[in-house]
Every structure is written in C-alpha cells, then in structure tokens.
Design goal:
This protein is an alpha+beta fold and 105 residues long. It has one domain: Beta-grasp domain (Ubiquitin-like (UB roll), Roll), CATH 3.10.20. The protein has two helices and five strands; from the N terminus they run ββαβαββ. The chain is globular. The relative contact order is 0.29.
Length: 105
C-alpha cells in the first residue's frame, strides 16, 4: 500500500525479517512487533513504565531523541546498548521506513 513502510528485525546475525507496517494508524513499533508474534511483553501497555519492550536500533533513519520517561526506564536495565530504545516509544511514520532493530533480551 502507498502508506506502508518497511521495518527490519534482525533475528540472528545476518538474518533479517522484513515487516510491512501502515503509517496511517498511529502504531508504535511495539504494536507492530507484537502483531508479528515477537516475544514483547509490553507489561505496561506502552506507557514507558516497564522496559519489557526494549529493542536495539541497529540502522536506519535518525529517530527523535528519547523523552525523560524512556531514558529513566532504560537506566533500570542491566544491559543497555548504544541504540537502546523502548519500542513503545517509537511511532511508525514515513520517516521510520527502513529502520533495523534487534529485540534485546
């Protein structure tokens, strides 16, 4: 469809799965991952209160800077990466086309 973008999930080194996502529904990356059966708990329902949707952004377009609530939750994690983000805080827009993430675990 014309409003769809592509997000890539690295499942293993060198192995990426392409996900197609609409941009006209206001979805978050967390919702896309859950809809595609990835093991994302999202215990707080996407409110940046639990960090169970932690992903590592590997490549793609620049994302908006994380807000304080997201940064606070990331600080509670035992392992944080340079590209660590909460997938519930990444909204799918045309400018996120080509984003490459890995589910942190």
């Amino acid at each position: 469809m014309e409003n769809d973008i592509r997000i890539y999930v690295e499942e293993a080194p060198g192995q990426r799965r392409e996900l197609e996502a609409p941009t006209d529904m206001g979805l978050s990356l967390m919702e896309l991952l859950k809809a595609n059966d990835y093991p994302i708990q999202a215990a707080c329902g996407g409110m940046a209160l639990c960090a169970t949707c932690h992903v590592e952004v590997l490549a793609g377009p620049a994302l908006p800077e994380p807000q304080d609530a997201e940064l606070d939750m990331l600080e509670t994690l035992p392992h944080v990466y340079e590209g660590s983000r909460l997938s519930c805080q990444i909204r799918l827009h045309p400018h996120t086309d080509g984003l490459v993430v890995r589910i942190a675990g």
